[in-house]
Structure formats: C-alpha cells, structure tokens
Design brief:
metal-binding, 3-methyl-2-oxobutanoate hydroxymethyltransferase, globular, about 270 residues, 8 strands, single chain, Pyrv_kinase-like_dom_sf, pantothenate biosynthesis, methyltransferase activity
C-alpha cells in the first residue's frame, strides 16, 4: 500500500471544491465492479467514475456509444456497494440524454435511484448546458466533460486533441457555458496542457484532466490503462502504467494450470 489512507468520512462535492481552493490535488479512477471499487477506495482514491468506457473494457463493444442504461446501472450499483467513502460518478450513456431536458433528467434520476451514485456526468459544452441546468434544477450533482468527447468521436473526425489554435476559444466558451449552467466539476480530455492550466486557474469549479497535462485540479484514468490490464494493449500517449495487473494475472493463471495438470493442486492441505 502507498501510505495514503482511505477517507474517514464520505467525500462530498464540497470537499473537492475545498481541495481546489487549498491547491490540493486529488485522484479519480474508473471502476466497474464491487471488488475494484473496494480496493481503490481503500487506497485512498477520492472519486470513482463508472465510465461509459465500460462499453470497451467490460462488455467488449467497439465504441462507448453501444453501452445501455441498464448495463451501466448494473455496474454502478456494484461500484457503490464497494466504494466506501469515495464519491461515485455515473456516466450518462450515449442516446440517453441528448433528445431533451426531460429525457436527460429521467435517465439521470433513474441511474441515481438504481445505483446510489452521488453524481452524474455528461459530455458536451455549450450545446449541453441546458441539460446541466435541468439536472441541477432537479437536485442532482453534475460533472461536465469538454474537449475531446468520446461519444462524439465520429463528429470530431477521430481521436484528436481539442483546443488548438481556433479551437482554444471554443473550449473557453464550452467551459464557461458548463460553469454558468451550474456544473460542480468538469473533465478536460485531450486538450493542450497550457490551455487546461489556464482554464483551471480561471475556473471556480474543480477541473479533472485526462490527457490535459498536470495543471488541472485532479486526474482521471481508466483503471485498465493505469494498471496495464490486459497486458500489452495499446495505450494512449497520456497514460502512465502504474502496475502490471494483466501480466501478473496471466502468470497466476498459467501457474494454476501447471499445478492442476501436474496434480500438485489441490494438495492434502486443501482437502477436508
């Protein structure tokens, strides 16, 4: 263990805002099940994201746009049960909030009711600001997501950095729009580090970076990327591997197979 202790009380939105005011960094990781949520909470991770990245790393879909509300709800409920005092954020999946404010609030309240999550997250800046305002009016905590937005990957012509050149002003407008709409925090994904740092300094709400440099208030990674699981998969430039879970798990499985094949397991000590 790293020496960081699990929070002794529930992490609230106000606690993360206080960390920003105090200049204290904090960490977010994705989680999709009870066991990993429990481990991450015990490691002191302040915030867990039940990301629509589950589409890829849990369900094996090609894109995040294929995961459903039901599929997200099953995972979210498990994460909340294992999350301890960590704050749990639920992604709203593609197609579940774009049509209207009413659809957005209906989806968000259903997910919170079914999972016990503490906050919902949705992608988009200025265009999605009315949805954020509607969610806040319904009494929900909201995390915005600007810059590269994976649910819009086809509209953005692929996995490209956002906010360069003329795009910088668009990102400023998007950030201000979600702040004005009442978002409690905002994710910057794949944006130039200098711009993300400037926007963080200007923002009254906490910012969370993924591929946005070190100048944001917090960082988030998909845990499979963070821990190299499965082993050897392609990782984006902004990912740092902090473990070798895929390699270790494969080695354990191979050793288990060997022991079974050679009659070494189970031994007398494993029998009744």
């Amino acid at each position: 263990m790293t020496g960081y202790l699990a929070p002794t009380k529930k992490v609230r939105v106000a606690d993360l805002a206080r960390k920003k005011a105090d200049g204290e960094k904090w960490a977010m990781l994705t989680a999709y099940d009870y066991a990993t949520a429990r481990v991450f909470s015990q490691a002191g991770i302040e915030c867990l994201l039940v990301g629509d990245s589950a589409a890829n790393v849990v369900y094996g879909y090609d894109t995040t746009n294929q995961v459903s509300v039901d599929e997200m709800a099953y995972l979210g409920a498990a994460v909340v049960r294992g999350a301890g005092n960590a704050l749990v954020v639920m992604d709203l999946p593609f197609g579940s909030y774009e049509a209207s404010d009413e659809q957005c609030v209906r989806t968000a309240t259903e997910l919170v009711h079914r999972t016990g999550a503490h906050m919902v997250k949705l992608e988009g800046g200025q265009r999605i600001a009315p949805r954020i305002r509607a969610l806040k009016d319904a009494g929900l905590a909201v995390c915005a997501h600007v810059g590269f937005t994976p649910q819009s990957v086809d509209n953005l012509s692929g996995f490209k950095v956002q906010g360069r050149d003329a795009g910088a002003e668009r990102l400023r407008v998007d950030t201000q729009a979600v702040v004005d709409a009442g978002a409690d925090m905002v994710v910057f994904e794949m944006v130039p580090a200098e711009l993300a740092a400037e926007l963080t300094a200007e923002s009254p709400i906490p910012t969370i970076g993924i591929g946005a440099g070190s100048g944001t208030d917090a960082q988030v990674l998909v845990w499979h990327d963070m821990a190299d699981f499965p082993a050897g998969d392609h990782r984006a430039k902004f990912v740092r591997r902090f473990g070798t879970v895929g390699e270790d798990l494969a080695a354990a499985a191979a050793e288990y197979k060997r022991a079974v094949h050679q009659g070494e397991f189970p031994g007398p000590e494993h029998a009744f």
